[in-house]
Task: structure prediction
Amino acid sequence: MTERPYWIAAGTVGWGAIVFWKAAELPQFDQYAHVGPGFMPSAVGLGLVVLGLLLALQIYRGVPFEEQGAEDVSEDHKVNYMALGLAAAASALPMLTMKPLGFVITCTGCFVLVAAAFKSRRWHLDLVLGFGFSLLCWWLFRKLGVQLGGLLPMMGV
Amino acid sequence: MDAITGLMNGFSVALQPQNLFWAFVGTFMGTAIGVLPGIGPALTIALLLPVTVYIEPTAAFIMFAGILYGAMYGGSTTSILLNTPGESGSMMTALEGNKMARQGRGAAALCTAAIGSFVAGTIGTLGITFLAPPIAELAFIFKPQDYFALMLLAFLSVSVVMGTSKVRGFIALFLGLSLGVVGIDKQTGLQRLTFGVPDLMDGVEMTVVLVSLFAVGETLYVASRFGFQKPNLNPLSGGIWMTKEDWKRSWKPWLRGTGFGFPIGALPAGGAEIPTFLSYTVERNLTKHPEEFGHGAIEGVAGPEAANNAAAAGVLVPLLTLGLPTSATAAILLAAFQNYGLQPGPLLFINSADLVWGLIASLYVGNLMLLILNLPLAGLWVRLLFIPRPYLYAGILIFSLVGIWGVSNSWVDLAMMAGVGVLGYMMRVYDFPIAPVLIGLILGPMAEVQMRRALAVGQGDPTVFVSTPLSAVLIAVSVLILIVPAMLHWRRTRKIDMPDETAGV
Amino acid sequence: MIKAVFAAALAFSLSAAAPALADPAVVMAPGGAGGGYDAMARLPFEAMSKEGIFTDGATFTNKGGAGGTIGLAEFVGANRGNDNAVMSMGVILVGGILLNSSPVTLDDVTPLVRLTNDTGVVAVATDSPIKTVDDLVKAMKENLGAVSIGGGSAGGVDHIVMALIAKESGLEPARLNYIPYDSGAEAVTALGGGAVTVAVSGVSEFKPMADAGRIRIIAVTSEGRVEGIDAPSLKEAGLNVVVGNWRGIVGAPDMSAEGRTMWLDRFAKMHDSTAWKDILAKQGWEDAYLAGDDFVAFLNDEKTRIGAILKEAGLTK
Result:
């Protein structure tokens, strides 16, 4: 597989450029230290641009990108985009629901989505388990004083 | 020999049944909460601060000491078993520890972590007992340029965790550095790369990045490539105890890790991270089994774990002897002292000798208790890996949310969790090492602050960086680290006359 | 087994969610747990509940960041017109609003009381040739850059003290070689070890080190002298600089007149109570009680004064 992911190099250069551009708005020098607040971000931004270009060169030469090993990863590294989507949805869900629906409902949703991503087929059992576990976490850590918010903030509980 | 009589008195306090009970409560809670991502000893003690109203000071401090050591230890469990370190101090443990767990040697990794923590904690406590005043002096000796040189050394040692491709390793490092500059510049009060978002003014929260890169990234990655087959590996296949070989390979790293952790932990700007980075590097360079590093070398667990526990002990040195809180945890302990109307410092040993020696004695007791609590549990913890994968990873995500949401209640942090989680996934797919991102994020701002401080004091004169003996030595060592491998490499390639693929790209 | 756990969890959570008390106060601390704003939020309520002044309980929220302005913004956003909502604050928030150009300011809230104050101290290393404030000013006039100054965050109270000293001595506050430290512990070791020439911090942070002979306090920032410290105030030394790190309580935006009177009454009672006096003693806080319209006037003065000096120090536009 000779994949040529030029977009990674482009992304690196792009982020580096943003950092450099934002840093350029800051003073580069300081009256006593000489090194001002803009120095470090400028250097980092420049470094990222150079590294991104080096990576592009490597990609051009056909450097291999081997996936990292992890536990329970199937040998053939076949990507299940459905599962990836479900897991990504689980990590994005809190952005949408944490404020209006609260910790317990959000975590129940995450639990069901992750379980589904891992091919659990009993979603109603997952729902019950997820709810119980989320509620337990919420209650326990709230007792300990961790601020996890109300049970149902939308309704003011 | 005041210390010995004091300590004996201390043990008579610490060994009273009710104080033993509080030590147990503390170590247990510390371990349990340390397991959670993002919630470390500082927050735990802060949350428990109100109990100081109800229980007497000796009991409270004995409990807090248990939490301090327990939380340091607890963080290693999830790092090893699930590759999800909960705080920066246990990140290095995850590198080798998780690889060991995947070979069925999780229990041995947990054991070497537990015993290493015990050894380091005990030596550290001995250090507090007998060496506290001279060690505390280090705080006055270290100048900004010395800190900078120490951080430079830690930075250079990063290259060993860079993985197979140097370019990708450096991209990861610079990514971390770029996240590190976000926020209000401490020296001038100017905003850097905040894009006008108020939640970013205090910088990118390190624990959010840590938890998202490791836990969320891992969940996405494993989910997308989850095989239908049963786990083909028995988590206990490597036994539940350390082998003779493991012991032989662990004891030196324990001692060396302690040697890094205790003095650096005692420095006002030291922390637990730098000693773990240094310890990992040193073990990787000294090992007789370099081929195992990156695939589960026990030295890489033993050293950093000892280092972070020794650093936790080191933090107590300036607190007790000078009344100086040098870390968030110590600042909260100081608040607890003040809740009882006590002022830590030289006078504390005179005015409240019972309390101080009781506290020190309880550190020994708490340490032993942790060992007793955790060694048998190692076999039990490993069984966590028998939990069906859907529930295991769902549970990890919920714990991550407790840490991320519970600490800040910030929507921006939740968004960052999702974004950095995807980044962690991509990095796994395209083989970018994860650790350099965090090293850059942690060390970058520290090194920048010290560099600018040193230059400000020296009014811009660059020779300030080698103006003290310590900084000169550390800088020289850094330069050697940079040059020697390159020279060896050059000689080797000339001899064999064949370009080295992995190092060349 | 799982069902039993679930049932137990549900039962517990219901008991936790059920409102146990009538209308608890909603209290915001714009700083993390264990910090100054946190204590200023919790301890007055501890005293009030102990003395039976206000016993309906309180829910505390910690929201630190950006000099306290993030907590302020959330407090203002969520509690408009809520007579039950109060927030701890202090001089650092006054500066923080300016430094972070916060869109939400203290004009949005209802000032109630100032409760405590922490006097600042100016200190040098024990073996420093600088022995008095005059020596310090002389050294600064000779070579301003050579006098490196350690203290808290840029634009914080410590920085303001030095900026005012510079201004009073006819020097440019923007030319100070000010080096911010994250904690008093870092600043005091830097000073004791000779990394900086002079340092500014609170009495509580520097006094133990001065008593131990590590550093020498050359001035305090209060009107007069401070008991137990052998150093003049800056005012006595001829510089008209009085700065305190004070803390207090503000109420929700658009709090009703009755609500304001109710809280002022509670704080007045609390201030006279022994429980509060015990807390002051234990925390080592100076009593700086100032309530109602007097506090409003004081707050306005502080805003003007701090705004002007931050501008002169080149920290705000």
Observations:
- The CA atoms of residues 85 and 117 of chain A lie 8 Å apart.
